[in-house]
Amino acid sequence: MTNPPVILTRDLTKSYGAATAVRALNLSVQKNRITAFLGQNGAGKSTTIKMLLGMVRPTCGDADVLGKRISNAKENCELRRRVAHVAENEPLYSYMTVEQTIAFASSFYPDWQPDHAGKLLSQYRLLPRQKVKTLSKGMRTKLALLLAFARRPDLLILDEPSEGLDPVGIEDLLQTLVAKAADGASIFFSSHQIAEVERIADQVCILHHGCLLMNASLDQLRQSYRRINLSFASAPAQQDLRITGVEKIRTEGRRISIFASQNADAVIARARDLNAVSVDVAPVALREIFLETVREN
Questions:
Q1: In the predicted model, is pLDDT for residue 1 greater than 80?
Q2: CB atoms < 10 A from the CB of 228, how many?
Q3: Is the dihedral of CA 217, 31, 180, 166 positive or negative?
Q4: 264-278 confidence digits (pLDDT tens)
């Protein structure tokens, strides 16, 4: 029996007047995976996350998080006990010190891990008696991450968690996310840093203008997508190469470049039938898949 999704949305929609931030979103996020939530600025990622956490009320539609309905006030409260959330510019009490902030947060969670908190305090080089208001943006991010990681949440929802971190901080974050997933936590995070996503994600979701364009495993994307570069003595019409799986064709003189989401072998066979002089096939990185997908739409 398969595990139910940790996040399941049903036509989830949020409008602000005439503008629709999230449009009829049907998203499924599986348990025990690191799922990346990608999109350009204004794509609707943060709005989606806020709806999932009960911070913003949907215009219509609904969702389940850890099997709890976000539209039900009691169930929404229950799910937030089991979810750790970190957002860009996470609000913290600026008048508190680091150690006061940790003591305050830990009092709310019976699953708090003081040993783990102490380890992260040292790893992140946070000074216990330093006031939060004097912390740099990156150090504030580290404190917010500590507050999330020192619990045993079933689900981590992170909105641009690497924002403000230096390369060492980003490396520490990625290693912690992988370790949390190995311990059984499910992770759902938005990011603009596609190179980071490609290193750790199991699943990739792409949101564009509030609509879900893609929800696929990273392994599936790596196996399916190809860049096929062809040379001809006389280039055929693009229409002759448009078969299932061909997403985009660019022609420059006698050279044709094809971006394909599947059926690379069939595309190559068609090219040879059209007397291609040379055929070069290369795998496609996630960055290129993302750029081609959002530009196409």
A1: no
A2: 21
A3: positive
A4: 999 999 999 999 999
Give pTM, 2 decimals.
0.89
Q: Are strands 186-190 and 19-25 parallel, antiparallel or unpaired?
A: unpaired
| CA–CA gap between residue 123 and residue 117 (Å, rounded) | 10
12 vs 26: CA distance, rounded Å? 7
Instruction: Report how many helices (DSSP H) and strands (DSSP E) the chain contains, helices first.
Output: 10, 15
Q: Which two tokens stand for residue 288?
A: 């290129």
Query: In the beta sheet, which residues pair with residue 7?
Result: 29, 65
> In this structure, which amino acid lies at residue 101?
T
Strand 255-260 to strand 246-252: parallel, antiparallel, or no bridges (unpaired)? antiparallel
User: Which residue, 69, 42, 43, 74, is CA-closest to 58?
Assistant: 69
DSSP H or E segment with residue 200: helix 194-200
In this prediction, residue 89 carries a pLDDT of 73
Please answer whether residues 194 and 38 qualify as being in contact, where contact means their C-beta atoms are separated by less than 8 angstroms. yes
Task: Give 55-122 as a DSSP string.
Answer: SS--SEEEEEETTEETTSHHHHHHHHHSEEEEETT----TTSBHHHHHHHHHTT-TT--HHHHHHHHH
